[in-house]
Structures are given as structure tokens and as C-alpha cells.
Design a protein that fits this description.
It is a single chain. By secondary structure, the chain is mostly helical. The protein has a domain of 87 residues: Arc Repressor Mutant, subunit A, CATH 1.10.10. The chain is built from 9 helices and 5 strands, in the order H-H-H-H-H-E-E-H-H-H-E-E-E-H. The structure holds iron/sulfur cluster (SF4). Iron/sulfur cluster binds next to loops.
Amino acid sequence: MSDTATNSPSIPAPQAIGIPLASEVPCHSAELLVHLARLVHGGDTDTSLTPAQWTALRYFASANRFSRTPTAFSEFHATTKGTASQTVKSLIGLGLLERRAHDSDGRSAMIEVTAAGQAKLQRDPLADLTRCIRALPEPRRREFLATLTELGGALARLRTAPTFGKCGDCGHCDTSGGSGAYCRCTQEMLNGTEMQSICVDFAQGAPRLR
Ligand code: SF4
């Protein structure tokens, strides 16, 4: 990113949120992260979908019911609504995603992964990286996740983008009632599957009722 973009009025300056300015020296860690992301789709992997299509398929398989919309996907993928919508349409055309009426609001639609989409995910190129991460000792995996979460939050603040996360770490999640978990943002009870799903309304760092 250029200095001009960094100082745009819509993007807070890194110093304002406690992040030192990048030096001129290349950051090996940042370059490695980008390299890893590119390696995921290299070699002998299933190239019948583009990386953006794989990301969308994965997203709709792991997002909760409040987040399975093209708009939420556009925020997750840091792309425009138009581009996200085209990606979703292409996957619907391939029979891997489908539109369904929303459970509680018949006027809006949710995007769901079809049985063919679930079968496709069995050949997800990300599986190799997942295996490499799971081969790390548990303490290093935990530390790695915490570091990535912190970096994701810091970069999202710089980009004024939402941070995606799960209910267990969310400030909107209220488990103080003793009868399961309640989301104070969507004002809905949460089931076990949703607690493990990613959410566009996730609020990192907000005080949580337990
Ligand atoms: S508790 Fe947070 S992460 Fe869970 S559904 Fe509500 S807003 Fe989303």
C-alpha cells in the first residue's frame, strides 16, 4: 500500500491504532504469508475452480445463518459486492451453491452449499495446508492462531473492515442466562453448530456476558 493510501481520511493511520509504520526493509513474515496463500493452489491441486471460487465455497460451508449472503461474503473476501455476487452466481451455475429463502425472513435469501458443493470440498486444495498446521505441536498451533487472530484484527482496523470470528470469542454472545447461548446482536438463541461457525457480526474485544 502506498503512503498516500495509508493516510487516506477513511483509513486510520497505523500510529493512531498503535501500529508502528512499516520500515523500508521487506518483512519476511508478511511475504511468507502471501507465498503460503499462493502455494495452496499450486502443484497437483484441483484447479477446476479459481481461488476466489474456492474461498466462496469454503466460506458458505463455514458461515452461520446470519452471514451466508453475498454481501457478507464480499466483506469476508475484501472485494466489491459486484465481484462477490459474480463469484456466487458462477458457483450456483456449477450446482455447488444454491439460493434458499431465509428461515425467519422469507423475503431475503441465504446461500447454501449443495451436496455437490460438499463433495467438491472433499478435494479442497486448502487441506494440505490444514494438515501441515495440524502437524505442529498443540502449544505452537495455539500460539500461531492467536498471532494470526491478532494480525487479522489489526489489519481489519487499518482497512476499516469487519473482523470475522466465532461466538465463543464474541462480545455479543451472552451465556449468563444458563439456558444456552444468546446473541445480543441478532437477538437469537444460538445452537451448537452456530457457535462453531464464522460470523460477519462478530465483535472482537467487546465485553462479554457469561
Ligand atoms: S454472538 Fe457474535 S459471532 Fe455469534 S452470532 Fe452473535 S454476533 Fe455473530
